[in-house]
TrEMBL record:
It comes from Pedobacter segetis. The keyword Flavoprotein applies. This is Deoxyribodipyrimidine photo-lyase. Residues 5-135 form the Photolyase/cryptochrome alpha/beta domain. PROSITE patterns: DNA_PHOTOLYASES_1_1, DNA_PHOTOLYASES_1_2, PHR_CRY_ALPHA_BETA. The keyword Cell inner membrane does not apply. Its cofactor is (6R)-5,10-methylene-5,6,7,8-tetrahydrofolate; FAD. It comes from the Bacteria. Keywords: Chromophore, FAD, Flavoprotein.
Amino acid sequence: MDKEKIAIFWFRRDLRVNDNAGLYHALKSGFKVLPIFIFDKNILDKLEDKDDARITFIYQEIEKLKTQIQKHNSSLLVKYGKPDDVWANILSDYEVRAVYTNHDYEPYATERDESLNQYFSKKDIPFYTFKDQVIFEKSEIVKDDGDPYVVFTPYKKKWLAKLKDFYIKPYPTEKYLTEFIPVKSFDLPTLKSLGFEKSTQHFPDKEFKNVLKNYGVDRDYPAKDATSRLSVHLRFGTVSIRNLVKVAQKEKSDVWLSELIWRDFYFSIIYHFPHSAKDSFRKEYDQIKWRNNEKEFEAWCHGKTGYPIVDAGMRQLNETGFMHNRIRMVVASFLTKHLLIDWRWGERYFARKLLDYELSSNVGGWQWAAGSGVDAAPYFRIFNPYEQVKKFDKDHKYIKEWVPEYADPFTYPQPMVDHKFARERCLDTYKEALK
């Protein structure tokens, strides 16, 4: 008996049914649609912590997604393995006439998709991918001569000028959910079978918190609950970027909208300059002679530098998987400028710990701190941790929460390096490398 000809939608960084570009096009393809998700062994094998909270988060969202799809007489097929092997098995089990998914922009993902595109092409199976996790991508926002922007402000100006209702109109996937293939429920691999344990970390809710009214004023104060905490949901696509832009417009929060534009900007940078994922955007900054003291790096990682604002941030990260954006800048500046430790060390640590880890934004942020990225500010911008406390945590509320012993000279360490000495050492080191 001939197998039913079907299309497949591959969920990746878009773990939602509503307003999903690729899923919408798959459901309108004329074929019944089998939805799948692959726990990619190539990615999972590189994770150091067996209780990595992100895997638990993804797993829980996959459970929710599967339940939602089952309401439409279908199910979510979840596989674990290397994508090449998984796809070979799927194509042997089903008569697949088309594969749909949404774009991913990170170097590994683009290489994987190009390889799979060639594989599908040999099988005479079209591989359709769509823009879904950003508003503008690739070369949609470029200079008049076609060159990519490397400075945020003119990029933002053109982004805002181009934005029309068309770009934030939701995809009405709900109208077509009857086009899922009718199947019995598929078994879900256990976390243990993936090589992981359940994390006990708390995950922020994706229901939007109404913090936008005073966002522009309050967002810099880490003790205030003044940010949306939606970054992990944006990272894995459990919310729609189009909807969030509409919310920013409705609430007239230009500052919050600007943060969303920064995200598009960093996606653009990583797309046009893939070398910047591992090397300095400004290549001359790779000449800096980093000290890379491993003991000092460990002290930074564990929040034992003797600088309370730095230690508070690192302890918050280690315990919750979250760090306030203002504090991210402070701890990154401290590592790269005070300790002269390569920004890549810090970037890798954040990659290990952050729930919302996003390669493009994380690399962009770390190179911003190190002075080696696209930011136009000079390298001698060095955050003074004491001044940061005076400006953004003057009552020490944030510090007291994460470093309760900070005022006890018998239990809290002395500063591991003098600020004035560290600043001068940094300036001398950078000047020597860049002359």
